[in-house]
Fold these 3 entries.
Entry 1:
Amino acid sequence: MLLLLTVFLAIAFIVVSSAVFKLHPLIALLLASLGVGLVAGLPIDHLAELIGKGFGELMAKIGLMVVLGCIIGAVLDRSGAALQVAEAVLRLFGTQRPATAMAIIGAIVGIPVFCDSGFIILAKLGKVVARRTQTSVAASCLSLGGGLFATHTLVPPTPGPIAAAGNLGVASSLGLVIVFGLLVSLPNVLLCQWFARRVGATIHTPDDEARPKAASTQLVLPSTAQSLAPILIPIVLITLASLKDFMPLPPALNTLLSFLGSSLIALLLAVFYSYRLFPAQPAQRMLECIRQGIEQSGPTLVLVGAGGAFGAVLKATPLADMVSHWMQQERVSGAAFLLLTFGIAAFFKTAQGSTTSAMVLTTSILAPLLSSAGFTSPVEIVLVVMAVGSGALTVSHSNDAYFWVVSQFSGLSANDAYRSHTLMTGLQGLVSLATTLLLYAVWLVL
């Protein structure tokens, strides 16, 4: 009980100290990591090493992606490509609802692509669409983030729902997981674009005062196809890599797709292609973009790594064992079981930050309890996967790398990110849970 209380107090400390008392989030995260580690009884002589390891492991996963994403963002801005792509998006979706357009784009991209990678790739587009339509940058970027987060958590082939389905014994029913994931995602996406428009209008970012650059130093803007390429190259390659397990391909081609479809290589190829967007002095113009991207990525990297350090400390505590022991002692079934499933996944997500880890931990606990709770058919177990995914949406805050990716690439302050992105992801989880319970009720009637 003391450990649970300490975790909640640590999370509250991070939020209050940075939002109210203006303590830098890096310091707040490190102090919270130390505090939880000490109360949990982790070895003092290894605590600093654990914090550094958590920081480094997250940097190993997305550090270079953040840098390359910032470089691509600078390319899209300086070449005028972002403006061209924004015009194409607005021709397709219209100029009246840019937030809706970004939510739909995010939801589509989030199915095969990690939400972190997707947001890094598309953030510049979200800003230019907002400026082009004279609407809030925060609303556009929040919609994009919500759409990405919904399908990333609920729809295979992203790893979270696949791992959850595997742990619960329905790996052979991934088609069913995809169908139900799309059904649960739909009201989720509608919610996030509505919420983003209402709350985003109240948030001011530095980009709201900027105006789309028409690349005045160039005589000719790149074509729409050329402008889309730095965005589509990584998305297509990552999608092919994620789908290769569902297609019978020769081993050599599988290996090639795995290499080209890794986020790092896919983004690096997009950077190489970007030289073509500058017909005059491409080397010099790209050097400027690379310098700008490196400069912009620094603050994001520091905060993402600090969030990883806090998450690593929490994973080293016996939280998962405590919840597993308690769950095995309880006897619940039906809708109450789905509610409890949601609560456990939401606890793990809120406590340690990683959506995928929350889904894996929760389903590992639930696997031996399904039959006793009355969940035996593939449809019923898939609904449990949806309840787990709903909990894993709830909530994204300071110990989640995605929180810092969204806030930093959108230009949101920590305080604004807590009252927008964090609150929105909480509402997304609740709406997904309500949809899951409704589908369960329909299944019982049928």
Entry 2:
Amino acid sequence: MSAIIHNSFRKFNADNFITSIGTNKVYLMIGKDSAWSGASAGEYNDASPTDVLIPVPNDTTSSPYYHHADMIAAKLIPSSSASHVIKRVDWTSGTVYAEYSHLTDDIIDTNFFVFTTAFRVYKCISNYDGAQSVVEPTGVSTSIIETADNYRWKFMFEVPQSDVLKFVTSDWISVKSPADVGSDQENVENGAVDGSLEHIDVTAGGTAYKSAVGTAQSGSTTTMVLDAGENATDDYYNDLTVYITSGTGSGQLRTITDYDGTTKTITINSAWTVGQEANNTSVYSISPAVSIVASGGSGTGATARVSSVDSGVIKKISMVTIGSGYRFATATVTNGGGSSAVIEPRISPSGGHGKNAVSELGGAFIMLNARLVGNEGSDFPVGDDFRKVHLLANPKTGGVAATSTTYNGAEIDDGSGSIIYSEFRAPITRASDSTEDIKLVVEF
């Protein structure tokens, strides 16, 4: 028998922990004002720890007693000081980023998203067959953003300035779902399409595929006269697709049913949109056709075209419409005279790209932030140091549940509450004018 714990289970636990912060009293507890020294089998195994060689805490039934004995003070962590966080992957020119694939195992362990200088996060939809990223993504469009290096990105969210100080470090950035009302992230969430095909990946470009680009000489309801320099062989472009990339009729995709090599005239399978018939301003692209089949009957509406052919090798597929409801799908290149191209649809995560940034980017980590300012109303002593940081849940004081914001060590009932996190550190010295900004990251 074999089994796995899904990332969704980890996020489920992280979500529940966030919720519990609002229903339980969780305190940041500091302790130990004396130097690390000597053996202590109950709380660590290191035989000769020092303030430089910090011991590793043990999880024994006796360790909470040591920690309570060393307690200096505790401060309540409100729910506003807890956030999902994801690993920080700064966009760096010259880096090859992993592209999103619904088939990648544990995709959250790969660098398939980036954090930019504008404090925005973008998911990599295509890395153009493993090319280096040299153009930083920008913008907050709800559609896929394509940069000049042929990378395709999905804007996910921007970290609010109010969260930067609390939850952004050199290793972590905050993430939330649902987004704040009226934010760019909310626009992305509302625009996400469940089961959409935002990208079809070229895994093998094949050989000898036909293509052409140019500006039409004229057109009619069901025809287009191509550039005078196009191939002179009758039927040469039959069964290929023609797409108007700009000018009159821009965005229309049709199949070529006949080609007259003498007049350079193509006939298409269905009429151009009324009022948008091809004319001498229409810039066209002729390429092999792309066939998309929804496996198991799921999904409709996605259409695509071959948008780049280099010396007969297919380099890129572009979506014309992304469709919806796909769960399984296949795609093939048809016609075009070539052979051996292999393409693979990339199906969006549940809800669509950007619907839930936390689950899509790896929401199995929670950061808790506590700021210790001066003596915190006399409960936190100054002119001394501490070496232990804990999370203490639901302690008692005088036999009743603790509810105040701060307590000194003598006020918390010995042994009360649950110590759910421990971290041993080098000494941190406190002064009356100092502020310790403590950030703890918990993995689920």
Entry 3:
Amino acid sequence: MICRLDYKVPGGKLVRVSVDVEGGTASRVRVAGDFFAHPESAFDEAEAGLSGLPAADLPEAAERAFSRPDLALYGLEAKDIAEALRLALTQAARQES
């Protein structure tokens, strides 16, 4: 199952999430949008760290991963990425049933 969602952060930017879920596990997670992250390498590491986790744990894991002290987000916060993932997973689950 592939979960995709575009989420407009209230008062902020657009975040686009895509999650490939196989057997309840996130095999690939992508986060993009019209926000900025610095340094990009820290963002990439946070994003990569989400792959292999249970899909149900992604929102909480994403909030922790993108709240790293060495990562600055501009136009959104880690909680916004978590919310986008939660909404994408919920929407995909509804479509499957």
